[in-house]
Structure prediction request, 628 residues.
Amino acid sequence: MCGIAGLFVPRNATPPDVDLGAMLARLGHRGPDGTGVWAADDRRFRAGFARLAIIDVAGGDQPLINDRHVLTGNGEIYNYLELRAALAAEGEQFSTSGDMEPILGLAARQGPDFLHQLNGMFALALFDRRDHSLLLARDRLGIKPLYWARLPGGAILYASEATALFASGLIRADLDETAIQPYLTHGYIPHPQTLYRGVNKLGPGSRLQVSAEGDIHEDVWWQPHAASDLPADAGEAAEEIDRLIGDAVRLQLRSDVPVGALLSGGVDSGLVVARAAEHAGGPLRTFTVSFEGAAYDEAPVAAEVAARYGADHSRLSLSQTSILDHLAHLAWHNDEPLADAALLPNDLIHRELSKELRVVLNGTGGDEIFAGYMRYFPTGIEQRYGMLPDILRRCLVEPVVGLADPMRAWQLARTDLFQRNRGAYVHAHSTYFPEPMLRWIGNRHPVNAPAHVRLAEAFGGNGQAAGLAADIGSYLVDNLLTLLDRTSMAWSVEGRVPLLDHRLVEAALALPEDQRTPGGEPKGIERALARKYLPASVTDAPKQGFASPVPIWIRSGLGDLARRMLTRPAALDRGYWTAEGVDHLLADPDRHGHRVYALLILELTILSQIDQGLSSAPGSLQDLMDAA
Prediction:
């Protein structure tokens, strides 16, 4: 786990001066264990690396260089031992014991298709010295980030975080206002767009190839799809899912530093811990987090699981720290706006974990591959409303309801999406600002189709799996995995996600709906498998979603700050909300607090990254506002 940065210049272009040292300094939290740089003699390729030492601690420095390639890689290649053995059998020589070096041998033999041999989380930059070409690539699920920008003259600038690009001295952070509307509807900015004009996020499972002449070819080398070899028999299919979970955990325990696991009271993390205990070779270190005053404390159930597997278990008790003490730091560190209020608790968790460990397994991804959210199922009201004749619903009920309550009419109208457009249905049940809500806050900008629609169509069909694939390619990568990457790497902790092993994802997407969620039970197959490993207090408990503290924050001072920030002339002049619209939202924190928070995070990100261009986190929210 590290940070990478670099500059590629076509042969016919003049190399600009790049401050690679400043770029690496901006990525220092991702790699506190040292830096490495390499520059071509003609200075048309320069690469930098900030290291967090996990595998081959003493000898795994980068860039990795041979007579043809220069490689920098962020992340981990979990099947590196198997790859090294296969290459060694063909006569390949190695200079390190690390996980990234096999890529050099694979690339020489297979070209860009070597990516299909990798099992891991990674963002790679591979320079071909012979052809003077560059390959940028991101892992299948997008667990590790990679940003890039094309400069005048055709040069390509890239880095693990967007703000490292601005530290180069070659581009500046300019607001791309066309990113605001997608942010408002999704709660994040779907790839490849970013908040910054001219800056792109390389998508999950994507690669960017740049020729010596500067020609760019970007393609998708993997996308969510159903495995073709899952057994047709339901029992055998369940056994294969169980086997893949175990093997994914086994691979992701590979490390030359201690590995621990976050353990909640849920099925996902419980399964990860149970399977990790089989391969850990000793007591696994596990951690549960309790927040003082929380309505639900999962610590007792987590302790029961930890005791079953003889884990070295710790309970971290955290206070309900005021959001005002952390919001400026979060907005700056996250690079881009993220409306998920879980950002703060996750930041606090990883801050505490960093005092104990560098590598932590967690259960991210279980809901997306096994259908754990209710948005994958029609609601009871929708099922009953859908029984009315179509002409009655469209021509009478919805127009009449819309006269008094446009939002209610919109909710009724989304009923049809479940059968007609599963991607749109999933988005409609997770959007922050539906179109009626946008109009209510004074937003008159056009609303484009959500990312989910394109992704569901790419998967094919209109069943439950299409909705899962849509979330995997949007919400999972641009929200959950971004949140995990930023909050863990801010404290130099590597977060690993065994349930997102691509083999398991493909197998889960191949399950028929009645096997994945029998009887309409969310995560039914996962719960059934978990009964072999976990107590009934876990497997039979209702899902405990994240209880948002935002309404409390709004009433405890955040609301007044939000009104000040969101009604500044600079904020209102963009035309995405009005002062009256902000007051509408603040009047009902229980219903709209999360929307106020979404707007505030956006404004604070613009203020810290664009208007002020801060090179380090502001000391406090007041410092940030005083400078506005």
User: Anything to note?
Assistant: The first helix runs from residue 20 to 26. The two ends are 35 Å apart (CA to CA). The chain has a mean pLDDT of 94. The longest strand covers residues 69-77.
